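User: Fold both of these, please.

Assistant: Here is the first one.
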Amino acid sequence: MKVIGTTKDGYMITATRDEVANLLGFYFGGQEGCPRIAPGDEIETAGMFHQLYDLARKKDSLTDVAKELRTVAALLEARNPIIAGAVDEEPDAL
């Protein structure tokens, strides 16, 4: 993208089709589902920014939760032979 001018509240930019697709959450402009943008269309980026910002801020918390889930999974896997012996492998037919 390149800034080609300013407005009262912001900037005027040029962007390639792929750059616009990236702003919309797509990998490239020709990807299935990626809309074609026409002059006058608006791209709302605030929602996408806030979602990414929140994920970045919660990274440590999400990492901690992932570690806890891995620990629980390891405990369950270690006890799987005991659990498998206590219950039938095939659920009863209703």
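And the second sequence with its predicted structure:
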Amino acid sequence: MALIGELQARNFFLVNTATESTLSDVRAGANLNGAIVQDDGTAAAANSDFMLAMVNNKGELTISDKINPANVTYANAIAYSAPVARNFVISAITADANTLYTVSIILSGFGSLSVENEYVKKGFYKAKTGDDAENIVDGLVKSLAKSIAREQPSSPDTFSYTDADSNTLNLPDNYFFSFTKTGTGASATLTIAEKSDWRDKYYVTGKKTNLEIDFHVDADFETDPTIVETVGSQGAGTGYQVRNLEEYLLGNRADTFRGAGYPHNFEENYDSSLSGTYSIIELAYFDVSRDEPMESKKQITIACPSTTVADALITDLNTALTGTGISIGTLS
């Protein structure tokens, strides 16, 4: 009879407070408190095996592997950095009467997330005699707003837009992109930007986990305009990134019915907050098997809601790693 179990090569812990120093203190403390301790439960010490002990949100004590400092191969920490939304500014727009202006938003991997797939949304405006750059921008914004508003999930909202004739329009809004006019007359420009809060409307733990809109903008005008991109970034330590790590690394220990269909697709509770911001500590090490000289590479990811909490753990980790040549710089 075979025994079936998990080979957990990488593990995840979320530690909200790190004010305790012994295993007994951690056990008696609040949920999501944790500490680096020796394998006998006392405070971390140089050249001594160590482990991470914490209490999860269910009040259960969770302990990492016992780690020999000499077996640690890598240690690092990064502080939270905010995501930056990608945007494109179309300027130097020349008004050519009786010509069609087309702006394309090309999304890579849309829906399927395959790099081979491109999904294109277009906005159109045909210039007439007397139009200037502002009239063209107005027409493109109206067209793009209607085109993107059809995408799911759709927004029931509208946004206010003032055109060249000072008319205030209520255009259909969407969750993914904003369309903004800057300047007036011949100097008007069009900005197409990724919305900073689109993940709030899109994300579903373990199901809809994409955190980036990979897109670029192209313009087909009679006279080529200038297009300038502000490169975006996902940041580091966002609540969505940490939730993805928690859901993936804890595996079916966190969600017994993960991947199961109805009626077994229950929503699980997670320790991380989607609106939270986290500092991340990474620790790589290896275990040596008992019967054969084989090394099993493993890794621990620790998420902390502040650099203060992360630095408390880093200080104790550095104590345990004394003499190994590996140390972690504090974040504060």
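The first helix runs from residue 23 to 28.
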